[in-house]
Amino acid sequence: MARKTKVSEPSGYTVLIVDDNQDYLAATRSLLEGEGHHVLTTDSGIAALEILKEQKVDLMLLDYYMPGMTGEEVVSELRTFNLVVQIILQTGYVNEQPPRELLKRLDIQGYYDKSEGAEKLLLWTDVGLKAAYSVQLLTKSRKGLQYILDVTPDMHRIQSLNDLLQGILWQIAGLLGVVNSFLAVIDEGGLRSTDEEQTESFLAMVNDDTELVIRASTGRFAGHEKVSDVLDDERSKVIYETLQKGRIRILKDTTLVPLKVGDLIIGMIYLDRQVIHPQDQELLSVFSNQAAVAIQNSQLYELAAIDNLTGLYTRGFFEKWLYRELRTAFRSRQSLAFLMVDLDKLKQINDQGGHQAGDRALMIIGDVLRRATRSTDITARYGGDEFAIILPNTGEEGAWAVGNRIIHMLEEKRVSIATGELFVHTSVGISILEPHTFKPEEIPHPIAPEYMDMMSHILIRRADKALYESKQRGGDQVYYDRVSVVKWLPLAPMD
Asked: What is the pTM of this model?
């Protein structure tokens, strides 16, 4: 295995070579140390297993045939207590075991013929270490995300958002050794804080579209309410630039991790430490995705209440979500469709079949609306026998399709009463919010919440008017005209 030895920077990996040929051990050790790897050696399978029980090893280069235990026997024993170590089997006899059969039968990553030389060995070593990297990343990520996975089932029965946010920070601190960090979450709610337990932390909500308010913290950031309280203007500017781009950003002494669910940025994790190692950066990426989903779910469950009769969201949750979707539609310049749906002739159903028949009709409507819409659409019982639907990123054609799908799905729906059956029909009214055409310099910063409230009222009023027209025309139909098209109101001039 003659090869000119080079000196490399430490790779951070540990390789265990197991071979009963002392010359091969020495040559291979020199070769791999030249690549920057920390190398352990032993000449027996039994000794290798003891090393693997006591030390962290990323990759084992294991001779297939050795006195005492064969390589295959070592692998079988190893997998009873360690499933992470990656293994490359080596042999000096080409036909000793068919390679494909071994790879299939054993949990190993490669099979190296010693006669193929140093370059091939280094190739297999790289393959094994890349596999080790992936497995370790997944293992580390799994441990890092365990807190979120554990608390998710509890989010329904307790108000756990505060615990979740602080837990995310402590989990990152445990994984990356972060001491000083804070987490800010975007939410349209009001400011809240707590002094629960004697921990360096506080929790708050954001009260507009742009300003981040600290919700959980550790170390020197404790006791502050706003990002502007702990960072200078230049660093705050970098924070908001990172939020807009939605990607992890590594600075000289800081790591910024946006919390993103789809196109929606819900917050930012700020780490007062430069995370350099690619594995840790990937961990942060995986962690932030899971954390963002958990946070959003927790927020939604705190806001949401499900209507017991129809299984749809209540009006309070719906109005909150409409505000959020309006903000998203504005930022992304997307259209937004709004549907008002009303059960036709509910009084007749109640008069002929009693209120239980009316309730059954409402339950049918709820089931149809859930099946007629996408998982990303928001459907709610707006009040009494009225329902409302938000269709994000949807124009006239998509709104018409959903409205007519509802009508079609109800064609054969009936409610049984003592004297026979009654059909269940609905009327549907549509309003469409078109994408805005404002230039960037025309958009004030921040946009007042009252502006979104006005747009919400206009959208609802137009859909309600279309619903009235549908009723006036006999019901059991979808109505939409050009009056139903909503344009964004003029923005207040910038100072």
From this structure: 0.47
CA distances from 157 to 161, 293, 305, 491 (A): 11, 18, 12, 42
Distance between the two ends of the chain, CA-based, in angstroms?
74
Instruction: Round to whole Å and give the CA distance between 221 and 434.
Output: 42
pLDDT in tens, 50-103: 999 998 899 999 888 888 888 888 988 888 888 888 888 887 655 555 555 666
Both tokens assigned to 65: 């045939």
Strands 14-18 and 38-42: parallel
Domain segments of the chain as ranges: 14-139, 158-302, 315-486
CATH of the domain spanning 315-486, picked from 3.30.70.270, 3.40.50.300, 3.90.420.10, 3.40.640.10:
3.30.70.270
Residue range 320-360, pLDDT digits in tens: 889 989 999 998 999 999 999 999 989 889 889 898 999 99
Q: Is 52 exposed, middle or buried (0-12, 13-18, 19+ CB in 10 A)?
A: buried
Q: How far apart are CA 231 and CA 244, in angstroms?
A: 18
Q: Count CA atoms within 13 Å of residue 449 on its CB side.
A: 14
Helix (H, G, I), strand (E, B) or coil at 207: coil
Among 309, 428, 416, 412, which Cα is nearest to 362's? 309
Per-residue tokens: 228: 């502007």
CATH number for the domain running over 158-302: 3.30.450.40
Virtual torsion, Cα 137, 141, 143, 146, nearest 10 deg: -160
CATH numeric code, 14-139? 3.40.50.2300
Dihedral class, residue 270 (left if φ above 0, else alpha if ψ from -120 to 50, else beta): beta
